[in-house]
Specification:
Layout lengths: L12 H25 L4 H9 L4 E2 H8 L3 H13 L3 E5 L7 E5 L1 H12 L2 H8 L3 H18 L2
Antiparallel strand pairs: 1-3, 2-3
Helix pairs in contact: 1-5, 2-4, 3-4
Amino acid sequence: MGSTTATGTAPSTGELMEQVAAVGAAYFQDFAAAAARHGLNSSQAKALKAVLEPVPMRALAGRLGCDASNVTGIVDRLEALGYAHREAAAADRRVKIVTITDDGRTVLDRIRDDMTRARQAFDSLDAEQRTALSRLCQQVLPLLRP
């Protein structure tokens, strides 16, 4: 696996940023389409991913990059579908904790399984490429997180 492009030069940081953005956008489009096929919008499906471990409502808003008032509607919908539930935190009853349910885990697994374009793209990589991509993601992701 070389470190240069077809022209023999390494891509610039800007070029890499654009390529990663394009991959991320295509992945997100596939995720959103799969979520829609399971009756969820992308924000609701992202929220399910974010509450695989119990999360306070305010922290969930931060993870989703939205206002806390928007999270209420998202969680209301997930609760109505039986995919998540919220309860008061033991230490502070004013804090609401959101947790995924077994049904929520099932639908999230189905959404992941239904992401056919992303699966085809990553299935096209051999073991060495997968390992290299995983290492690169592990190196870059901590630097991108707040």
